[in-house]
Task: inverse folding
């Protein structure tokens, strides 16, 4: 097994696309090293992308934020200006593993590992985040919701690297939140996750909303019907009840050791409602 | 198999080692550098027994490749005491009997030091959350938390 730590994106793409056998991107390694150890993946070459400056920086862009795919969860969570603008995205990355794991695990890795239960993903989708991808045929842009296609599977083509996330400029009176259900408070995998992002107008009426659920389908899932239940309302109890019903109705979960279908469907509505309540509070406090 | 020549700093001392790609930093510390204070528990980043700091960040050494340590500064349990003087956390763990079999202890001490460096006056809840990535299967956590809080008091000089 070869290990390469290229200093440029072009060199990393060339390494990934230049091998006939299995090549893997190594970022935080918190999923990959375990998969290698278990014999589930046997890469011929590991391409460590952490030496590429573009992939490890957090910068302001067009009033929003662009951060590299290899930024660690801890680095993003500790970024105060980012956390003020996107507290829900910060909630999500803060729930990934222990302090030890967050110090290594990257936001891009959380997306590209393509677990349906990834805590970093639903709030990012609710936020309307975009990603930049570099590959043998150049650069392209995509939406976060279009990256995972199913458990462990992504839409990235051979040789392509997810390079950065772009979180858009925040409208006034906006707030977001992410909540998950787990039997334990720490070190657990989401049974259900819910990310809600909303914007209020001057009168306190919800003008925009996005709702995304995790762990209730083969990948994190936008629920436009749940967002529609909030838009045009003051996010009052009736609207929240409609949101919860729409969230539950959209679920297509599996039964597994962490939760039954029935349980996940019910809890998805509860988590979406509670996340919306937190997002509402944050939007009211935001300028 | 190609071996990598890696130069790093461990507990303040420059070190150089050879490792294979698949060897983790934990493997290197234990098998190449003979620093066996860092323990392997689960090998999957769940238990925290292999906790070290890399450039000041708390991490599981089982989730890092040895070759990734190039140019990094690593702190392990072996660097915690100042010669014969135990670190206050180590002393408080003994005073509070905050260990039984001891396998989790080096990782917990490293994690606790990292916690107190960032938050010198943590609440009990903050200590419990701060150590959530470190599992102990013997004692339960009460004495560990007490020892960390007591050490924090001493380190603050109060």
Result:
């Amino acid at each position: 097994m070869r290990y390469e730590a290229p200093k440029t994106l072009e060199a990393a793409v060339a390494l990934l696309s230049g091998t006939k056998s299995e090549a893997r991107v190594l970022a935080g390694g918190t999923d990959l090293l375990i998969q290698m150890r278990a014999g589930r993946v046997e890469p011929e070459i590991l391409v460590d992308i952490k030496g590429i400056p573009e992939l490890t920086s957090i910068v302001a862009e067009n009033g929003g934020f662009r951060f590299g795919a290899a930024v660690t969860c801890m680095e993003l969570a500790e970024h105060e200006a980012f956390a003020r603008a996107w507290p829900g995205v910060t909630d999500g990355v803060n729930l990934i593993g222990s302090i030890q794991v967050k110090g290594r695990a990257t936001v891009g890795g959380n997306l590209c590992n393509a677990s349906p239960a990834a805590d970093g993903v639903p709030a990012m989708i609710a936020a309307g985040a975009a990603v930049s991808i570099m590959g043998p045929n150049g650069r392209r842009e995509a939406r976060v919701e279009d990256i995972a296609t199913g458990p462990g599977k992504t839409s990235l083509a051979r040789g392509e690297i997810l390079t950065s996330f772009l979180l858009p400029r925040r409208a006034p009176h906006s707030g977001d939140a992410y909540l998950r259900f787990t039997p334990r408070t720490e070190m657990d995998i989401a049974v259900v996750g819910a990310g809600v992002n909303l914007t209020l107008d001057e009168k306190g009426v919800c003008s925009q909303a996005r709702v995304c659920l995790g762990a209730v389908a083969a990948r994190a899932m936008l629920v436009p019907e749940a967002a529609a239940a909030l838009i045009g309302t003051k996010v009052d109890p009736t609207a929240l009840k409609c949101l919860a019903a729409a969230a539950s109705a959209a679920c297509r979960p599996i039964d597994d050791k962490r939760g039954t279908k029935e349980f996940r469907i019910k809890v998805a509505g509860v988590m979406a409602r509670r996340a919306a309540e937190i997002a509402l509070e944050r939007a009211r406090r935001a300028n | 198999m190609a071996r990598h020549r890696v130069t790093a700093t461990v507990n303040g001392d420059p070190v150089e080692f050879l490792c294979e790609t698949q060897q983790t930093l934990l493997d290197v510390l234990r098998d190449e550098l003979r620093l066996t204070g860092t323990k392997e528990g689960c090998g999957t980043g769940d238990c925290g027994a292999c906790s070290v700091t890399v450039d000041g960040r708390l991490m599981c050494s089982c989730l890092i490749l040895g070759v990734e340590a190039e140019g990094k500064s690593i702190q392990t349990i072996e660097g915690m005491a100042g010669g014969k003087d135990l670190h206050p956390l180590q002393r408080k763990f003994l005073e509070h009997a905050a260990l039984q079999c001891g396998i989790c202890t080096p990782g917990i001490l490293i994690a606790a030091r990292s916690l107190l460096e960032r938050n010198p006056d943590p609440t009990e809840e903050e200590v419990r959350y701060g150590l959530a990535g470190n599992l102990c299967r013997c004692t339960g956590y009460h004495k560990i938390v007490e020892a960390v809080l007591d050490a924090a008091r001493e380190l603050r000089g109060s």
Remarks:
- The domain at 4-79 of chain B is CATH 3.10.20.30 (Ubiquitin-like (UB roll)).
